[in-house]
Amino acid sequence: MSVPAKSPSFDPADPLGIDDLLEPEDLAVRDTVRSWAADRVLPFVAEWYERGELPEIRELARELGAIGALGMSLDGYGCAGASAVQYGLACLELEAADSGIRSLVSVQGSLAMYAIHRFGSEEQKENWLPRMAAGEVIGCFGLTEPDHGSDPASMRTYAKRDGTDWVLNGRKMWITNGSVAGVAVVWAQTDEGIRGFAVPTDTAGFSAPEIKHKWSLRASVTSELVLDDVRLPADAVLPEVKGLKGPLSCLSHARYGIVWGSMGAARSSFEAALDYARTREQFGRPIGGFQLTQAKLADMAVELYKGILLAHHLGRRMDAGRLRPEQISFGKLNNVREAIEICRTARTILGANGISLEYPVMRHATNLESVLTYEGTVEMHQLVLGKALTGLDAFR
Fold first, then answer.
1. What are the residue boundaries of the structural domains of the chain, listed by start?
2. Which segments of the protein form a coiled coil according to its record (predicted)?
């Protein structure tokens, strides 16, 4: 008669035993990024956030390149060639530090580098990707415009042929990394449909004024892109794609990272609330001993680890080449909404201390308000899923 194996003890830091699903290489990636964030971001991010700037962005980019975090799921050209799950774990750990740091990495790798890697010429790949993977060149991604966010097909930025050159005119808005980028991947209308361009930011007519007075993503560089008669050679266009499928495929890759990253912000807030509940005393005992507080913690844990399981499932599907855009919408819609709710509930447990920058909760909550909107609003992802479920298009 066999003896049943002894059940492992319950781990509040991994209540569902999700680490059992990870390979040693996955854990090594996660621990490397977690250690880097603990050393280089967490001691300083509250001050950066309060000042509304990311003063060491170029140095941070080089350090992120050194640990293989930039374009990490891409192959070749100095990229790490990591799995989708490993990239997701990195996003989770980066956003547990701050959404602005994860946005830096996401825009660099999942938008700018991904666009060049998938749609660029070999010359463009050789020119840009190794330097971007090393963090020597920062990239940005110009799609959203002042009057066209959820409807990119109506963009007004236009590229016109002039001999063998292209001349670009237009504006892009809410562009992460824009003011520090060395290359901007800009999408524009042309006579032959929407095209993408790799625009060196030192080109005459290009400027990227930084957007100030934000109350969210304050430890991040956000800019407007201004293109006034920007003249580019013929080889600046990304040759392998025409139409919206180009930028939308890049956005799908970035949204996947958000599915994981939002759970990092939620985990950080949950852990702050749990620690506070164990030590904060009212009425003669820790508040974690009261039923209402325990109910909040239990509900937060359920949604947090359900969200991480969902992210893990989507990552395995991506690694198998079976992940659909509708499934990414499922994850982005659910996980960001639940992450915000976890932050709000954590704030109630911390009481007045919850609004202080001494704790990460309010910083994460305000950051997530931006994450909720960018890479597709709640409403857009609801419509994506609604169309997939019913077969009826409600977008127009």
1. 18-133, 139-236, 245-390
2. none
The answer regarding whether domain 18-133 maps to CATH 3.30.565.10 reads no
**CATH superfamily to which 245-390 belongs:** Butyryl-CoA Dehydrogenase, subunit A, domain 3 (1.20.140.10)
Residue 4 neighbours by CB under 8 Å, 6+ apart: none
Which pLDDT value is given to residue 149? 82
Q: For 290-333, write each residue's pLDDT tens digit.
A: 999 999 999 999 999 999 999 999 999 999 999 999 999 999 99
Active-site annotation holder among 53, 122, 375, 379? 375
Residues near 392 by Cβ (< 8 Å), separated by ≥ 6?
Answer: 386
145 in active site: no
> Which one-letter DSSP state was computed for residue 211?
P
CA angle (316, 371, 38) in 5-degree steps: 75
Q: How confident is the model at residue 274 (pLDDT cuts 50, 70, 90)?
A: very high
Tokens standing for residue 59: 């140095």
pTM over 0.90: yes
User: Which of 75, 81, 77 shows the shortest CA–CA distance to 29?
Assistant: 81
